[in-house]
Design brief:
Length: about 850
């Protein structure tokens, strides 16, 4: 069976059992509506906020904490149990609030369909609700109208449709009605089709509805969005593994100590309470909350770097990114057609300037041209200005981008459209159409007679001119076209009457235009490569255009680094996995291609950031590790499917966000190292007391205070540690790396043993001097002081504390002082003494506690000097 684009208009009518003039009958339309259903997109059923909230409790780490709370409650430690439960529920509420808005992508798709459609039924024009459109309906298209279904065009008069949101085409596409004699034609090249969600930018047309609802190209994208599953981020995977590891460790500790005590003759109840105390010491209760708050603070900081984070885990995932798949138009480029070279009088003239700013120079051999001495060149610029229906308002173009580029070009030469139109008023025209590929206008000449100007496809302009060096002009034009330029020929002639035929013109030259790269992108690509991040361009645009931009910004150099969508179709998934290793530019791609590319990269272990602004990008954004939507040009669909939104639509902002993400993950490593090292200190303290037959040096309530307060505030302050200078010169971390790496384990054992030994020594000192309450108070205090000293070590995994400076993170100093004040309150305030079972310490006891607690600083400084390479987390 033939595809719609292969059918002639008459064949399409026959296939749809419709009429290209009168449309369907009312009875037939009603019958088809009942048979096929309404023309609307089916949204995925929304998940209730309550379900989202309770889904947070599936995490292994959270289950471990809930188990600890349950056991604490069963043995009568209700305060401990309450503290843990409050923490867990606050963490779940914060995480759930970030996800409640995440499933609105398909709902946003509905907004793209206009509520009313213009159709012909029984020969009469009707305005009907777009949901009532059926297969075979005859739709009327005019400039500004939005397509409400996919149609096979049967009439197109100067019709141009903006398909950028669906195909990635940077300019409106010229449409026609002739059949295309090919089976496999990319979506962007089906010029006899028009698709739901796209808008008619120019001209008019008619089309028969070939697909409605979920059968449309837009509907297929909606289906892919619904089918795409949320993937766990690297940090979530690490924490899932870590939670299981921690749960196993806690059970092992409980079991070993319980059995050892029973074999030693201790009472069962006593050993059960002791085992539970050790389990509480092993679990860092504050860790999930600190990680969540750290990610939230990172998301807040990113707003200042033009990046809005929609899902908290995305902050950390940015630091893992190994590949950035970027759209071309508007992200790598300015999304503004600009004339960059002119061919005039056998010369190629370079034109400078950025975007639609009417400022720039005309350079010949890198030297400025005096336009006053170039009447032929000024005439060429005037021709482009007058055969033009666009308007330049400030630095914005109203109308066709190609015509806008000619307006800005003339403005750079000091030619003002309004002034020139008064001087040379238009008296006649032959409008552009897609068959002729020309536009011709006739203007009254103040010197007498008329001037006729024509612009259009270079081969058509050359055909209508008497040109001697035709082959030379064609060769220059073809070379510029191969470099991705769009070529527009310009010609003129003088007449004595206000009418003309498109022949016997004089060739003036041509303009070579393109959508240039953003000025800052080239440096951002260099920064990517230094950070061992691979940039890949994925676009719906032409192969040559894509390669030209890729060369300019150093993403690709050779044609063998480029692959078109039609080539992807011929590859198996395994072949594509091999191809993505060497292909840096994918051109003429569809939404399905983008999904396959993302899948292929991820299957190779890459962490993929995918950018996009159009509806066609949404499925790939949702499938990737980090979906990045454009805030200015992006559709609602893309934004709702994304993890991050760029408020300036700039590739360089993605690189800045990755830098911020790496800094955030560095800080997560620092406070995890800090919290787990200090928790191991608690474990060694409790374990040592049992081995040596001592009373418990810490009560569960004291352990919980250390885990939540003494750990929590400094850890939170570590999350805002300044980003280290060399962070974008390191390779991304291995996404498969486990959270319990060798470096972390040695840190936990070494620092934990030191803390445990110091705490037990002061516990014994307190026992000899003042009994069990004094001993526990000294152990409690020195353990808190140990943590305040060790948090300074954790500010950098390889740089000396004295090199980075004590006061470069004022929040940490404030956190340390606040924690010390709270610890002193627990020791000296009578009401808190009752709750935490403490007693006042002497000045000497405080000084000796502080002195012992400072011992980790010189030891870690010596380790950093001997082995400066940072130990990974």
């Amino acid at each position: 069976m033939k595809h719609w684009h292969q059918l002639t208009p008459k064949e399409a009518e026959a296939s749809l059992t419709s009429n290209g003039n009168s449309g369907l009958t009312l009875a037939e339309a009603k019958k088809r509506l009942e048979k096929y259903g309404p023309n609307e997109l089916i949204a995925k059923k929304a998940v209730s906020p309550l379900v989202t909230f309770f889904e947070q409790f599936k995490d292994t780490m959270i289950i471990v904490l809930l188990a600890a709370a349950l056991v604490s409650g069963l043995i009568g430690e209700f305060k401990d149990s309450l503290f843990i439960l409050i923490l867990v529920f606050l963490n779940a509420a914060l995480s759930a609030s970030q996800q409640i808005r995440a499933e609105k992508a398909v709902l946003a798709l509905k907004k793209l369909a206009a509520p009313l459609a213009t159709v012909v039924r029984e020969g009469k024009i009707n305005r009907i609700a777009s949901r009532e459109i059926v297969l075979g309906d005859l739709l009327i298209l005019e400039a500004g109208s939005v397509l409400q279904a996919d149609v096979r065009l049967i009439e197109a008069v100067n019709l141009k449709i903006d398909e950028s949101s669906l195909t990635g085409e940077s300019v409106p596409v010229e449409k026609g009605s002739d059949a295309i004699d090919k089976t496999e034609v990319p979506l962007a090249e089906r010029i006899n089709m028009a698709f739901m969600g796209c808008a008619a930018a120019y001209g008019r047309g008619k089309g028969l509805v070939a697909a409605t609802g979920m059968k449309t190209e837009l509907g297929k994208i909606a289906g892919m969005i619904s089918a795409a599953k949320e993937e766990a981020t690297p940090l979530q995977k690490r924490f899932e593994y870590f939670g299981k590891w921690l749960a196993g460790l806690a059970l092992l500790i409980c079991g070993v100590i319980f059995l050892a005590g029973i074999l030693r003759g201790e009472k069962i109840v006593s050993m059960f309470l002791t085992s539970i105390s050790l389990a509480v010491a092993a679990i860092p209760e504050g860790l999930p909350a600190v990680v969540t708050i750290a990610l939230a603070l990172g998301a807040y900081r990113m707003v200042g770097r033009h990046a809005i984070i929609r899902k908290l885990p995305a902050v950390e995932t940015l630091g893992s990114v190994t590949v950035i798949c970027s759209d071309k138009t508007g992200t790598l480029t300015q999304n503004k057609m600009v004339v960059r070279e002119l061919y005039n009088a056998d010369r190629v003239i370079k034109v400078t300037g950025e975007g639609y700013q009417p400022a720039g120079e005309f350079l010949l051999y890198d030297s400025p041209i005096d336009l006053e001495k170039e009447p032929n060149l000024r005439l060429q610029l005037l021709a482009g200005l007058l055969t033009n229906d666009a308007r330049l308002i400030g630095d914005k173009i109203i109308g066709d981008p190609t015509e806008g580029a000619l307006l800005v070009l003339a403005a750079k030469a000091g030619l003002n459209k309004e002034e020139m139109e008064k001087l040379y008023p238009r008296v006649n025209e032959i409008p552009f159409d897609s068959n002729r590929k020309l536009m011709t206008t006739v203007h009254s000449n103040p010197d007498g007679g008329y001037l006729c100007f024509s612009k259009g496809a270079i081969n058509r302009i050359i055909e209508m001119c008497d040109l001697e060096e035709r082959d030379k002009v064609i060769k220059v034009a073809e070379n510029l076209a191969r470099s991705g330029m769009r070529i527009l020929g310009i010609a003129f002639k003088r007449t004595i009457e206000p009418k003309t035929e498109e022949k016997k013109f004089h060739f003036l030259g041509f303009a070579a235009m393109s959508d240039p790269p953003r000025p800052e992108v080239k440096q951002a690509v260099i920064k990517c490569r230094q950070a061992h991040i691979r940039p890949i361009m994925i676009t719906g645009d032409h192969k040559l255009t894509a390669l030209a931009i890729a060369r300019e910004i150093n993403i690709a150099e050779h044609e063998d680094e480029v692959m078109e969508g039609i080539e992807i179709d011929k590859l198996t998934d395994e072949d594509l996995k091999k191809a993505v290793l060497k292909i840096n530019v994918f051109a003429r791609v569809t939404p399905e291609h983008k999904l396959r590319i993302v899948d292929a990269l991820r299957s190779r272990g890459e962490i993929v950031a995918m950018t996009g602004d159009g509806v066609n990008d949404a499925p790939a954004l949702k499938k990737s590790d980090i979906g990045v939507a454009m805030g200015i040009m992006g559709t609602d669909v893309t934004k709702e499917a994304s993890d991050m939104i760029l408020t300036d639509d700039n590739f360089a902002t993605i690189v800045s966000a990755i830098e911020e993400g790496r800094g955030i993950y560095d800080n997560i490593k620092k406070f995890m190292r800090y919290m787990l090292s200090t928790n191991s200190g608690e474990i060694f303290t409790m374990f040592g007391s049992i081995i040596f037959g001592l009373p418990l040096p810490l009560l569960p309530i004291q352990i919980l205070f250390v885990n939540l307060v003494t750990d929590g505030l400094p850890a939170l302050a570590l999350s805002v540690e300044p980003v280290e200078e060399n962070i974008m010169k390191r390779p991304p971390r291995d996404p498969r790396e486990k959270i319990t790496s060798e470096g972390l384990l040695w840190s936990m054992l070494g620092i934990g043993l030191l803390m445990g030994t110091g705490t037990l020594l002061l516990f014994l000192l307190g026992m000899n001097d003042g009994g069990i309450i004094k001993a526990r108070t000294m152990a409690f205090t020195v353990l808190s002081f140990f943590q305040m000293a060790h948090v300074l070590n954790c500010r950098s995994l390889d740089k000396s504390l004295f090199k980075i400076g004590f006061f470069s993170n004022p929040y940490l100093i404030l956190a340390i002082l606040s924690t010390i004040i709270m610890q002193m309150a627990v020791v000296y305030v009578p009401y808190l003494q009752t709750i935490f079972k403490t007693t006042a310490l002497s000045t000497f006891e405080i000084i000796i506690s502080a002195a012992v607690a400072l011992t980790p600083i010189p030891i870690v400084e010596i380790r950093k000097r001997i082995s400066p390479k940072p130990q990974t987390l």
